[in-house]
Amino acid sequence: MEDLKGRYLTFILENEEFGIGINRIVEIIGMMPMSEIPKSLPYVKGIINLRGRIIPVIDLRLRLDKLEKTYDERTSIIVVELTQEEGQKQVGFIVDTVNEVAIIQDVDPPLVENINERILLGIGKIESRVIMLLDIDHILTEKETEYYAEQNKAEEN
Known about the structure:
Layout lengths: L6 E7 L2 E6 L3 E6 L13 E7 L2 E7 H4 L12 E9 L2 E9 L1 E7 L2 E3 L11 E7 L2 E6 L7 H15 L1
Parallel strand pairs: 2-11, 5-7
Antiparallel strand pairs: 1-2, 1-8, 3-6, 4-5, 6-7, 9-10, 10-11
């Protein structure tokens, strides 16, 4: 198997480039109809049924406190595998557009970070580009993680 260390799927949110380790990517799909989750946070856009799997979908733009944008033909959902205390589960992240798989060897630690949230693994550099590398296991709050774990257990029963 090819070594995936240093490989990141890069994508754009509001003219900024972000990356997620390629080993965490399950698949990339286009936008599709979602069922809303009552009383969820504004960045939780709903759930999708992807070949029999119920997957919560997060608008990553809103989760990272960026302006809301109308979805278009370039908008994608990146389905990722999260590792949590209760096991692994899949979540979809809505992004403006998927860019490329990049090899990023030059990574600096995050310069400034909110003390309550650890969502950046580091800052990647490729030539003149700066890429924010996300720690996807910390994108959701602990409370949200517990809620979706309960949803997944209910789906299995």
